[in-house]
Write a structure and sequence with these properties.
The chain has eight helices and two strands, in the order αββααααααα. It has 280 residues and is mainly alpha-helical. It folds into two domains: 2-69, no CATH class; 92-275, Multidrug efflux transporter AcrB transmembrane domain (Multidrug efflux transporter AcrB transmembrane fold), CATH 1.20.1640.
C-alpha cells in the first residue's frame, strides 16, 4: 500500500484514489491491492504502478524454492510469486441505484431519529432536532463534494455516524433546556440561554476531544480511512454549532408559530407523565 501511494503521489489525477490492501488467509496468503479511482484516471494509474512496481500485472507461475536461479530480461531474479491484475468499472446505472439506496438509508435514519425525539421530548424539540440533522448532513455532503471526493458507501456510513453524534449533542442541550424551563422563572428566551450556557463548556470540550481523535485517524489512518475521517471531522464541527445555533432557536420559533408556550407545554407533558408513567 505504501509503495502504491508513493507511485501515485505526484500524478495529476481528476480525483484522489482510494488504496486498500488485503491479505488473504492461509494457505493462499496472497495480497490484493485495490485502487478505487475515476475512470479517466485508470490508465494513468495502471501505467504508473507498472513503472514503479514492475511485478504488478505480470502473470507468472511460482518458480520453485530457488528463485535466484531464474532471472528476467534485466538480469534480476524473477519473483517466486504469481501476479495478476484486473479492472472493474461501476456503470452509471449502478451509480444511480447506489444514490437511491443511499438516500433511502439516510431518510430512514433521519425519520427514526425524529420519531425518537418526538417520544423522548415534545414535538417542538423534534422539529428543531430534525432541522439541525438535515442541516448537518447537507453541509457535510456539500463540503465533501467541494473537496472533490466521490460519494461512496464510506460516506453514507460517515453521514449516519454524524447524525448519531449530532443528535446526542442536541439531546444534552435539550435536556438542560427542559429542566431549566421547569425550575426557573423568567422569559423563555432568557431561560433557554441560561441552559445553553450551562452546557456550552461540556459541548466544546467533548467535540474538541472527538475532533482530535478523528484528526489523528485522518493523518495516520491510511488512504482507506481518509474519506471517512474527513467527513467525520466536518460533521463534528457542524454538529457542535448546530445543536446550539440551529436546533434550539428553531424549537423556540416553532413553538411561537404554533401559538403555544414552551414552558406550559413542558409542564403539561411532565404532569401527564406523572399521571401516566408509561409515556415518560
Amino acid at each position: 500500500e505504501s509503495e502504491a501511494s508513493t507511485a501515485l503521489k505526484n500524478l495529476s489525477l481528476k480525483k484522489d484514489p482510494i488504496i486498500q490492501n488485503e491479505t488473504l488467509p492461509a494457505p493462499d496468503s496472497s495480497e490484493i491491492l485495490s485502487i478505487r479511482c475515476a475512470e479517466e484516471d485508470a490508465d494513468l494509474i495502471a501505467k504508473a504502478l507498472r513503472e514503479k512496481i514492475p511485478a504488478l500485472g505480470l502473470k507468472k507461475d511460482p518458480i520453485g524454492p530457488n528463485p535466484a536461479s531464474d532471472t528476467g530480461e534485466d538480469g534480476a531474479p524473477d519473483s517466486p510469486w504469481k501476479y495478476d491484475s484486473s479492472r472493474d468499472t461501476v456503470e452509471a446505472s449502478l451509480g444511480a441505484d447506489f444514490l437511491v439506496n443511499s438516500l433511502i438509508a439516510l431518510g430512514i435514519g433521519l425519520v427514526g431519529i425524529l420519531l425518537y425525539i418526538t417520544i423522548r421530548f415534545e414535538f417542538s424539540f423534534a422539529v428543531g432536532a430534525f432541522a439541525a440533522l438535515f442541516h448537518d448532513v447537507l453541509i457535510c455532503i456539500g463540503i465533501v463534494v467541494l473537496a472533490g471526493q466521490e460519494l461512496s458507501l464510506i460516506h453514507v456510513g460517515a453521514f449516519l455516524t454524524i447524525a448519531g453524534y449530532s443528535i446526542n449533542d442536541t439531546i444534552v442541550v435539550f435536556d438542560r433546556i427542559r429542566e431549566t424551563l421547569r425550575t426557573k422563572r423568567g422569559e423563555v428566551e432568557g431561560v433557554m440561554n441560561l441552559a445553553i450556557n450551562a452546557t456550552l463548556s461540556r459541548t466544546i470540550l467533548t467535540s474538541l476531544t472527538t475532533f482530535m481523535a478523528v484528526l489523528v485517524l485522518f493523518i495516520f489512518g491510511g488512504t482507506a480511512l481518509k474519506a471517512f475521517s474527513f467527513a467525520i471531522m466536518i460533521g463534528v464541527i457542524v454538529g457542535t454549532y448546530s445543536s446550539i445555533f440551529v436546533a434550539s432557536p428553531i424549537v423556540l420559533i416553532w413553538s411561537r408559530m404554533r401559538g403555544t408556550n414552551l414552558r406550559r407545554e413542558l409542564l403539561d407533558a411532565n404532569l401527564e407523565a406523572q399521571v401516566n408513567p408509561g409515556r415518560g
